[in-house]
């Protein structure tokens, strides 16, 4: 990898001239600028962004914390973040915290050492009050978080439960997401607001995470524990897909014998047969809006809304019965 000294030697200018040309700080003649640019291209020189940000006292890097990159929902979120960051000249440093781990604080320390300009986090309780750097929470948001972009999960829960109620619900099983995730609680609140005023019988199966491993284990446990289930309201698509897989292994027909609705609208929900009916979170838009909010916060630009709530949509596919 080329150094700034090698670029200066190739271009026939001083190191100071190369530095001014790179940082656009101070006078550089048009001829010298061209020589530096040609040398950078020829030597494939890439500036050290950390060193440059420390020198300029201004960083073009954003830290991103996600709880589980193996969950297909979060790459969609990340795609929106990266697109907005790239449009604004920022790079993204990613940290996978893993459900239930203590890695979040370690990554926050690392981000501080890397001189990031701000942090986007989908890890609940990311200490937004404890750090000087700007932080925007996304997806998993607490009331005390100052800046946040998230989905209206109460509305999503209502949409899911109403879709089941409109289609011969029978006995309903709610697979509730982890209590540590604020959105899980909101989804459950929305679902119960629809079910409780009716005489529909329902049970709640509590989960501890949104991981694939727990989804598969939970599906097996559910069919052992509950002898009769007609409708399943799942807290995310992974659990819904695991239920569909286990039901079909046991010879049950979807949706005739058991109907299922998920939450998130991950790409795999379109690829299974029958297709999974689900509540679509605007993951790409959520990530894009969160990055935009953080960059405006970093730049100390005017911010009209500190907390942005996006609406989910019901996506009907083949896993629900006809009305």
Task: Name some characteristics of this structure.
323 residues, alpha/beta, 434 Repressor (Amino-terminal Domain), Rossmann fold, 3 domains, six-stranded mixed beta sheet, 43% helix
Structure in words:
The protein is of the alpha/beta class and 323 residues long. The protein has three domains: 4-47, lambda repressor-like DNA-binding domains (434 Repressor (Amino-terminal Domain)), CATH 1.10.260.40; 61-151 and 283-310, Rossmann fold (3-Layer(aba) Sandwich), CATH 3.40.50; 153-281, 3-Layer(aba) Sandwich (Rossmann fold), CATH 3.40.50.2300. It is 43% helix and 17% strand. It contains twelve helices and twelve strands. The protein has a six-stranded parallel sheet with strand order 2-1-3-4-5-11, with helices on both faces. Helix 10 (237-249) links the parallel strand 8 and strand 9 (259-264). The radius of gyration is 25 Å and the shape is elongated.
- The order of strands across the largest sheet is 2-1-3-4-5-11
Note the overall shape: elongated
Structural class from helices and strands?
alpha/beta
The CATH level-2 architecture of the largest domain is identified as 3-Layer(aba) Sandwich
In angstroms, what separates the terminal alpha carbons? 64 Å
Residues in helices, as a percent range: 40-55%
Indicate the proportion of strand residues: 15-25%
Low-confidence stretches: none
Number of domains: 3
H/E order of the elements? HHHHEHEHEEEHEHEHEHEHEHEE
CATH hierarchy class name of the largest domain: Alpha Beta
Under CATH, the topology of the largest domain is which? Rossmann fold
What is the average of the pLDDT values? 89
- Biggest β-sheet description: 6 strands, parallel
């Amino acid at each position: 990898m080329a150094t700034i000294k090698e670029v200066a030697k190739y271009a026939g200018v001083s190191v100071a001239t190369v530095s001014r040309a790179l940082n656009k700080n101070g006078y550089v003649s048009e001829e010298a600028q061209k020589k530096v640019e040609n040398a950078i291209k020829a030597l494939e020189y890439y500036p050290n962004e950390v060193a440059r940000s420390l020198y300029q006292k201004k960083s073009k890097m954003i830290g991103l914390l996600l709880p589980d990159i193996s969950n297909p929902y979060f790459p969609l979120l990340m795609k929106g973040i990266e697109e907005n960051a790239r449009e604004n000249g920022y790079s993204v440093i990613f940290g996978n915290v893993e459900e239930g781990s203590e890695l979040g604080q370690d990554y926050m320390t690392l981000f501080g050492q890397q001189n990031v300009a701000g942090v986007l986090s989908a890890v609940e309780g990311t200490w937004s009050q404890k750090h000087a750097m700007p932080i925007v929470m996304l997806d998993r948001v607490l009331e005390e978080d100052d800046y946040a972009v998230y989905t209206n999960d109460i509305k999503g829960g209502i949409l899911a439960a109403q879709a089941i109620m409109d289609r011969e619900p029978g006995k309903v099983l709610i697979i509730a997401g982890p209590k540590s995730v604020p959105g899980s609680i909101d989804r459950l609140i929305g679902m119960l607001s629809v079910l409780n005023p009716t005489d529909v019988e329902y049970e709640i199966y509590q989960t501890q995470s949104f991981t694939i491993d727990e989804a598969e284990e939970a599906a097996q446990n559910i069919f052992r524990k509950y002898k009769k289930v007609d409708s399943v309201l799942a807290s995310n698509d992974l659990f819904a897909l695991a239920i569909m897989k286990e039901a079909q292994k046991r010879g049950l027909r979807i949706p005739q014998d058991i109907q299922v609705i998920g939450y998130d609208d991950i790409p795999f929900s379109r690829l299974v047969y029958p297709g999974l009916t689900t509540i679509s979170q605007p993951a790409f838009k959520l990530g894009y809006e969160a990055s935009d909010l953080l960059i405006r916060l970093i730049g100390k630009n005017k911010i009209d809304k500190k907390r942005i709530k996006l609406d989910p949509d019901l996506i009907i596919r083949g896993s629900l019965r006809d009305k």
